[in-house]
Amino acid sequence: AMDTDLSSQDRKDLDKFIKFFALKTVQVIVQARLGEKICTRSSSSPTGSDWFNLAIKDIPEVTHEAKKALAGQLPAVGRSMCVEISLKTSEGDSMELEIWCLEMNEKCDKEIKVSYTVYNRLSLLLKSLLAITRVTPAYRLSRKQGHEYVILYRIYFGEVQLSGLGEGFQTVRVGTVGTPVGTITLSCAYRINLAFMSTRQFERTPPIMGIIIDHFVDRPYPSSSPMHPCNYRAGEDNGAVYPSVEDSQEVCTTSFSTSPPSQCVFTVTKAHFQTPPPVVTDTLKVPVMGLAFSHQLSSSRLSYQPAALGVGSADMGCPLLFAGGLNAAHPHQLIGPGKDGGVPPIPSQPAHGAQADQERMCTPLDGVHYPAATPSSSEDTETVSNSSEGKCGSPHDLLETIFIRKVGAFVNKPINQVTMANLDIPFAMFAPKNVELEDNDPMVNPPDSPETESPLQGSLHSEGSSGSSTGNTHDDFVMIDFKPAFSKDDILPMDLGTFYREFQNPPQLSSLSIDIGAQSMAEDLDSLPEKLAVHEKNVKEFDAFVETLQ
Amino acid sequence: PPRTHHRAPPAAVPAMNCRAEVLEVSVEGRQVEEAMLAVLHTVLLHRSTGKFHYKKEGTYSIGTVGTQDVDCDFIDFAYVRVSSEELDRALRKAVGEFKDALRNSGSDGMGQISLEFYQKKKSRWPFSDECIPWEVWTIKVNVVNLANEQERQICREKVGEKLCEKIINIVEVMNRHEYLPKMPTQSEVDNVFDTSLKDVQPYLYKISYQITDSLGTSVTTTMRRLIKDTLAL
Q: Which positions make up the signal peptide (chain B) (predicted)?
């Protein structure tokens, strides 16, 4: 007999799935708005902590925020989990861009198998979320954030509020999964009316893909607003240590079963499973104090680069140039990777950093309404870091004292032969070095080339050339020096230069000579009948050939 | 904690109707590859699982699928694909061939590429195994020629927007939770999944393409007709 009611085991599993689905949903959304490309590796062996068989990293701060918002509850009818994505400019204006909603409705699917079908469909829904988060307008905005604006996120639980999205907002459905206790729905409502801030404004700066803007000197925010803390907060120097999901004893090792082909059994073995204590709270109502200002609500600025994805600082240019003690006594030193001269961009921090902004706390549970904070809220100043200045000194001073000498491209002589004081020009080595050697240099004084008469050449030089009846082109082009680029003139007896000299005046092609060209059209026409007669004679052969093609 | 086994109700055998989805895009020549890859990768993201590891008693565990963002160079667009170099290579190869065929067709630049998911049904000798498709995605491509840089810039944005719509369409289809092959036993897994990749496991699939000329017929018939006509003299 089929159980129509959910067994307690199934119920526990389902609750756990929904909880972790909610947490992973938040991770995917927030990570998609960090402004950088996300990359995780596939692993053929399950690790036990990859929920829904997907490699989605858990940013501890984000998990912490999500858990705080949920406060032990799960999405249910009327209680939705919302992730609000907003944009904040350097002037402090802010605007909601998207609301991602994880909702539950009453439509139950009693027949569905929790342990197997629901789990796999939740996995599919997460994949859809990964795809959809890249196609809403906020994605492109978030990839360009840094100089003029930043993207913020906020998680709340309760009733969905879409009023901050302006008129005519659009909705996209990510997907639904039916469960025995209700249908999970994931959707996104996004603003399309960017009137008070046109997108064009944010596209002025060219997109810098995949690099956290903070690594450069520019401080986009003139005020002391701490929107760009420089230090990497791995949790060591951060006061609040956020427990990662792995630490929280809620690990899911999954194994599936297909004993007879028609049966699929899903078993969940839990390494100590800790049921969170039930917390009875009122529905969270987050006050909305107007469209443009939502500072009183808790929000976190996040631009995070997990260490696992870390790029080494080796490609950041040459910080060593700016360490004290570098002098101009090493003029031959070429500058670091790939740079052609000049000075590489000065990194303002030594390494990539997770810029976990200190969040502004808001606990609406106790009903306290915080006053609208001004954009440069003082409680945030502590995260301003001056480490950039400390490490690099004053970069501009150093710039003037360093003289970098660049050896010209394609140089094939040893560097110590270079005597020019300022070798900033390419091919500098080809400039005349020792004048007395040039007389013997066949490059400079070539032997006389064979004199050939050619009508073409005659016609070229018939006008405007002084005394060039012999076709000697030496008189037209006074060649002081002839060192063709890229040629090694000290290895082969005959090289490009010699070749060029010798074969400068080739004889005219016979087919181009005037004689043949003078043949009249009439003569051509006369020869036609003869040619046609030949073809007619061979017509049978041609037909046979055509037959073979058909 | 004790293992619980749920006895599933006897499943009705689903009618083997093949689901067919068609998408259409108009792109510039140099955008063909990226547009095709974006669509194919999005579909395969939803149609790939982690590697199965069968254990005793008929249980199996599933590996982990990683994902990564891909930025397009010729389109203002980004998409997510499964982190599998083997899969990416296979798709790039197919899309490259399609693009070359489009270019060499000399026609107006119309064609379509199909991604078909199928199941294998073993037959007795001397009959070869049957391939029964259960889902086919067809992308119809129309290559446009643009006159100047300004048009190209507009095309970059427009095609980007169009692809966003296509991704939403694909996700809509995926969300219908329609027929999927049953999870196979170890002996049957190669009839349902492509187990040749080392890090992920897509459903068995094949990619094919067709180039159409402006009359809607395939190129080979046109060429034959052309030769016949010219030689008719």
A: none
